[in-house]
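Supplementary Methods, section 5.1.

A reviewer requested that the exact input to the structure prediction be made available. We therefore reproduce it here, unchanged from the version used in the analyses.
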Amino acid sequence: MVTTIISILMIMAGYFLLLYGAVGFIQDKRLFSSAPKEYLAVIPDKKERFRGAHIVGWALVAVAALLFAGGFALGIWDGVRNSFGFLRFFVRFLVMLFAMELYDIVVFDWVLLCHSNFYPHFYPELKDVVSPRMFGFNKKEHITHFILYLPVSAVMAWVCALLS
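The structure derived from this sequence is encoded token-by-token as follows.
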């Protein structure tokens, strides 16, 4: 249980660094495919905020990828070490992926997108666009993720159970 929580925290930290690197430093609209259409319409194509901003952004994205991989590697390593079977691996992966999606919904969508100055800080053009009414703009995408996490967790659990 503790290992699963640590893995989830690593994944959440990675997820935030991914967002922060992309929005705050890389600032390439191609990376914002999941943003609301209203945001994409007013976000200008930007050059680097300062010299080296893209390097900082890509470094944050690299750290995020390492945190994601590390979170899953920790969960797998602990499961193999403790001889987890299919069901225990499946539940662990499902909890990790569902927690990641809930983090996306609550922190990214509800807090950062609808109730904070996070996006307008980097894009002042969004000041008049940010509002709580934006919440839920991507609910179909979230539902799809929750459904896809079931077979993904099953396949990952099956592979890991073979390693145990």
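The chain has six helices and no strands. These observations are discussed further in the main text.
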